[in-house]
Hints:
Number of helices of chain B: 16
Strand content of chain B: under 5%
Structural class of chain B: mainly alpha
CATH class of the largest domain in chain A: Alpha Beta
Mean pLDDT of chain A: 90
CATH architecture of the largest domain in chain A: 2-Layer Sandwich
CATH topology of the largest domain in chain A: Alpha-Beta Plaits
Radius of gyration of chain B: 23 Å
Shape of chain A: elongated
Number of strands of chain A: 6
Oligomer: heterodimer
Mean pLDDT of chain B: 90
Number of domains of chain B: 2
Number of strands of chain B: 2
Number of domains of chain A: 2
Low-confidence stretches of chain A: none
Radius of gyration of chain A: 25 Å
Amino acid sequence: MAKKKFVVGCFDDEAVLFPAVKKVRTAGYKIHDVYTPFAVHGLDHALGMRETSLHTAGFIYGITGTTTALSCISWVFTKDWPLDIGGKPHFALPAWIPIIFELTVLFAAVGMVLTFCYICQLAPFVKKHHFHERATDDLFVMVIECTEKTNTADLEAFLSNAGAVEVKTEIAEDGWWLGRYDKDEMPFQTNTVLA
Amino acid sequence: MLSWSKHDVKNKRAFDKPRLTKKKIFTMASIRERFEIPGKMKTWSLALIGIGLVAFIIGLVTKGMSKDEHERAIFLGTLMYNTIYWTLVCNAAMFFICATTMAWGGWQISFRRVTEAISTMVPIFGSITFVVLIYVVFIGKNHDIYHWLSEEAKTDPILKGKLGFLNPTFFFIWTTLAIGLWALLGWRIRKLSNEADEAAMNGVSGAAFIKQNTVRAATFLVWFGLTVGSTVPWLWMMSIDAHWYSTMYSWYNFASTFVAGMSLIALWVVYLKNKGYLEYTNQEHLHDIGKFMFAFSIFWTYLWFSQYMLIWYSNQPEETIYFKHRVQGPYKGIFFLNLIINFICPILILMKRAAKRNYTLITFMAVLIIFGHWIDYYQQVMGSISKDHVTLGWFDFGILSLFVGLMIFFVSKSLASKPLIPKYHPFLKESIVHHT
């Protein structure tokens, strides 16, 4: 957790955003993130992000569920408490398949949701800085991380040239902190005096 | 702006290219409109048909005209499961068109002509099926296949109850209607698609086309549900075990042929891509076809298991009789091979995203799945006709080669007969920019 300097550029068109991302990356700036109101197809590739490993994790959770269910049921029904059910063999695999399947799904689903929340740092009472309120409404907000050498004025001009409708420089918290969003003052509650 | 050159389409990361903007128009460097049948393909298909015909004639002499009724039943049974399988697989292509149309899907338009070409096989394979089935019921009167044809059926309390459904008259009417309407309703959909090639559409005529297309697709689907989704597999295949019944049976067969149908579509798409056709179709589309192959393999397994598990669990003799010789008898190997090819292989191999986008892997899996479900049909039909020994041999593969040859011959002909891309289809653009 540290305060860092960011340059924020807001775009109002997907078709402008993509070339801008490319220009910014070619120019050598480090994009912190792009906040969009909806999932934009191909943006992750344009940003050069690596493929997520969430599905691999999901597979491992699923396999864990399968083995848990299979070993548990087979131990109970063959070793711990063998019961004669309708004359079926104690190791009655077909009857267990539905439960094994359910546990596979349960482990994979719960595991993936928790992993996803962990990766994205999502949890109750975890707060992160919002660079622009309209990122949840109608603006694509590109955030560039500055180094000591970054000339913010130059970068702002660069973003404007690339088609940003709004640019600003901000010093903001990089990580997360504990807090509650519902205690925040909402943008629409701010009383601005119009001249 | 995207200029859709051949290079872009082949480029594995086409989405890294500049994005589409509203200001610019699509320009296509060059589309190869028509498929030209390569000489090699024609030779191969004719060779396969030739092998098949030789096998058919030898089979006809040695088995079909044998004095032993059981041998004759094996001959007819082999013809039956092959024709039924290939008819339903090709019909699944029409089901795919209709289902995606009803879902207002746009992604499949770039290769829609391929699915249409496969569905033109329905009248051809359908008439072969019709001839074989009518022969079995009316001329061969083969009780080893359809036990309900025999005189005993009139006194057997269980079969007596089924006589309203299982009788030659109903069999004839329903078989004629089923095959005839699949062919007719499918033809109407293809006809509309062909007519759409004549002139560019505006908003009004485009909407009228979509509406007309949706109505025709819906009509086909209703009939498809009444036949493939329920009655036809009961009538043609389940009635071989006249005493036995399973409510899962038709859905099981639908899943079986649909996943094989998707694999067949994948094979043709990959083939045409390799030959440099279908410029608008790329990995994104292949990925979605692969998803269908993956998902419906699992769906098939779900039905396979549901049918098996309920019967295993309740353990009623009149129900377990179907599985007795399949799980514990001579069909044991084929029965579990079926599960390995059609479940274990697809779930493990097609699970990864990269696998579904890989042309080689999709080709391999498509061939495996088509073969796997052919084996599935084999054990469903022949497992009931020849209970005490497995008949899989040269004759089965000969007839398979006949059908594969016919399929390649006629589908390639049909592909060559009209433009490969429905260029005026209102949803074509959606298919071009499709991103999975």
